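Bug report (template v2)

What were you trying to do?
Predict the complex of my protein with heme C.

What happened?
Run completed; filing so the output is reviewed.

Input:
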Amino acid sequence: MASKVEKDEITGVETTGHEWDGIKELNNPLPKWWVLVFYASIAFSVLWWVLYPSWPTLTGHWKGVLGSNQRLALEEQLTKARAAQAAWLEKIATLDTAAVAADPELLSFAMRGGEVAFKDNCAACHGLGGAGQFNYPTLADDDWLWGGTLADIEQTVRHGIRFFDDPETRDSQMPAFGADGILDRAQIDDVVQYVLSLSGRAEDAAAAERGKEVFLDNCAACHGEDGKGSHEVGAPNLTDGIWLYGDRPEDIRAQVTKPRHGVMPAWQGRLEDEVIKMVTIYVHNLGGGE
Ligand code: HEC
Ligand code: HEC
């Protein structure tokens, strides 16, 4: 083996002097900058392990000499935010909902708090922004089943609708006119036409005319003589073209034959009192508050 530095004839690169069966190893060292960065990053990672939480240990994990912890930092931020909110919430707790809504600063706080609570608890049924969906009423329009004043909405939210775990829940039952044989087929056909006529969509004027009698005798007690509904019993306005259970003649026939009844959970006891007030104010301000 050659003792002095030897060069490969083809590439002109120094060899390391290692040779196997005539194959020689070229000496191509890594660039200096690369090696420096490599060692620096090792040093950096060692330093990092020491300073910050890193390795698992027998009893938990290495906490790092800086004692830094993002969870703690987050908690600190949350505590601060809660303290800032606490003052507002305390005020809201002592006032009734109307008084909260009347104070511009509290109102804007309540709107934000109410929006969050609505997204978390109500939007699954009522849609984002109270847009509603089939079978679940829109809360952003001025068509109300049970009333759209602050007090009405608060009562609905606190005690629910047909939610019998709550003794103060709103309740009403539309009779099953078909299934219970209160009206016969012909009468139901007529009253369906009359209901359609209330929003200008009757297909059979003579039937609608006959249906008026049926309506006044059987339906007006809840839906009103003019068909505009009643907040007392949560009977929908049948004249406004807004439908909970569909606007086709067969939808209306189905409701008259064997009615559906919406159930809305009570939130008293499940949401904090301040949150109920805030979400009430939020719903009232969605656009349809009375
Ligand atoms: C499980 C589904 C569901 C959830 C969750 C829900 N609701 Fe309802 N809500 C309903 C149904 C169904 C009705 C209609 C009941 C009826 O037919 O009378 C209703 C009715 C209402 C009404 C009365 C509307 C009117 O026209 O009078 C208000 C106000 C209301 N909900 C607010 C809320 C708020 C605020 C929340 C959240 C805290 C909420 N709801 C959560 C299902 C739900
Ligand atoms: C005891 C009160 C009561 C009587 C009487 C009554 N209804 Fe109703 N009706 C209701 C209530 C309450 C609802 C809403 C149910 C709900 O919110 O889930 C309703 C819903 C309806 C709907 C569905 C409206 C929609 O938006 O989809 C129609 C249609 C209807 N009633 C027609 C009639 C007709 C026709 C009669 C008479 C033959 C009648 N009702 C008698 C209480 C009554």
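What did the reviewer find?
The mean pLDDT is 93. Residues 145, 172, 174-175, 177, 191, 195, 218-219, 221-223, 233-236, 238, 243-245, 252, 255-256, 260-262 surround heme C (ligand 2) (CB under 6 Å).
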